[in-house]
Amino acid sequence: MKRKFECTVTREDKYIIEFDDEIINQEWIEDFANDFYDFKDLKEHAEHLAQFRARFPDVSFIEGYRVPLIDGKLPLFSDKNDVEEGINIIVISEDEECEVDVEKIE
After folding, report:
1. Which of 16, 34, 76, 106 is most buried (most C-beta within 10 Å)?
2. How far apart are CA 30 and CA 37, in angstroms?
3. How is residue 97 annotated by DSSP?
């Protein structure tokens, strides 16, 4: 006999995604769209970076973005040659505790 439970995990993280206009400009956005994802504006980039940080907080290299700054600093154990100083992820909050709703599946 197998017992199954559906678990819904809810957490809330908040970030400010900061872009330096001198580096992350329209040309950068177009080059990114040609090589990676077809994002049209910085809002789409901010959404992608925020969800990536929430899902993988221990990963510093992000494909297409290299290594963004975290709270204005290079993440530990990151290669300085890979840093993207035009992007800064400011961590406002990251939930360590999660709410979990569990339902037994019949």
Report:
1. 16
2. 10
3. S
Structural tokens at position 79:
């290669």
Closest CA to 18 of 94, 102, 92: 92
pLDDT value for 13: 95
Q: What is the pTM of this model?
A: 0.86
Residue 80 has pLDDT above 90, yes or no: no
CB of 102 closer than 8 Å to CB of 6: yes
Tell me the pLDDT band of 76, cut-offs 50, 70 and 90: confident
Mean pLDDT, rounded, for 9-23: 96
Query: Are the C-beta atoms of residues 86 and 64 closer than 8 Å to each other?
Result: no
Distance CA 72, CA 30 (A): 25
Q: How many angstroms separate the CA atoms of 63 and 58, rounded?
A: 14
Distance CA 5, CA 7 (A): 6
Q: Under a CB-based contact definition with an 8 Å cutoff, are residues 56 and 94 in contact?
A: no
